[in-house]
Write a structure and sequence with these properties.
Elements (H helix, E strand, L loop, with lengths): L6 H11 L7 H10 L5 H11 L1 H22 L3 H11 L4 H17 L10 H5 L6 H16 L3 H8 L9 H6 L14 H13 L5 H12 L3 H13 L6 H9 L10 H13 L3 H13 L6 H23 L6
Helix pairs in contact: 1-3, 2-4, 3-4, 4-5, 4-6, 5-8, 6-8, 8-11, 9-11, 11-12, 11-13, 13-14, 13-15, 14-15, 15-16, 15-17, 16-17
Amino acid sequence: MRVEHDPELRRAVEAVAGLPASWTPVTEHVARGLWRLPRAADAVTHALTGDGPAGRDRGWVMVRARVAEEVASGRDWTREAACWLARGRADWRESVRVTADLAWRARADGHSALVFLTGAHVAGTDPGAPYGRALWHCFLTTLRYDFRCGDIEEFFSRPGEFLSGPEEFFSGGAGGDPADGAGTDPYVAAMRAFALLGRSRTAGLPLLEAVLARAADDRKVVHALLHGVWLGEALPGQPELMLRLLDSPAFAAGLDAEALFRRASALRRLRRFDEALEAVQSAIDGLDPRAVTVHADCVRERALILMERDLHRDAPPPRP
């Protein structure tokens, strides 16, 4: 792509290069405006394929803004996301960063990925290639947000619909151990762990450990595991396991609001009520003002902490 010989392309490339490399509501608003420039799509392709790591980050900001417009329109945003992720040759981490937040937004807007994707179609795509991987991420993440653990388990047990048999694919080849998830990227493996953990199935615990061994530094992965453990109320040592996950390298720079919410829940179950109240208040204080669903979850958690604290304090002492 000869940028220097095309004035319109050069202007678009320079405009994208001036975009901040991290996503915020402000950068998304700016990115939407940049899509109105002539040759904007070519400039985004240039950022993703020929402008270094910072250029790729700016390119993904542009992609998120483009797909967000598809979400708002009610059109099939999943394939738009998959096409751009394929065009930019996204790795699994980039794919998760783009698709997970868009899946949440689409679900909230009434344009869930499940409107456009079926398990049979997704299972027939190649999760080792950027296009298929993006569809797997969109589909499985949305099922997770809907707490549809059974549907996720069914997806992984579909005979004959994967490019290879599901157990062979998931284990990474014949003779592998399906419990380690080595045949998929860590986020897909975390989705299967979520489904098992969310139903309080201890079979998910070895998979959780295997996923952590591969990607304990990735927030999206660890959040998925946390979500499953939080949902699996009958798991042995559930609150202690949640606290251990919150100490993983993914949160080395500090806990975000969702992680603080999980921390408050774990501390409540351990009857460490003062610490739980501190965690949930920190979560509320750190929320994006548009995160109304998470805010409601935090308010409910705070009410549970106060109720259980009062019940515990008012309970008569045990008889000697």
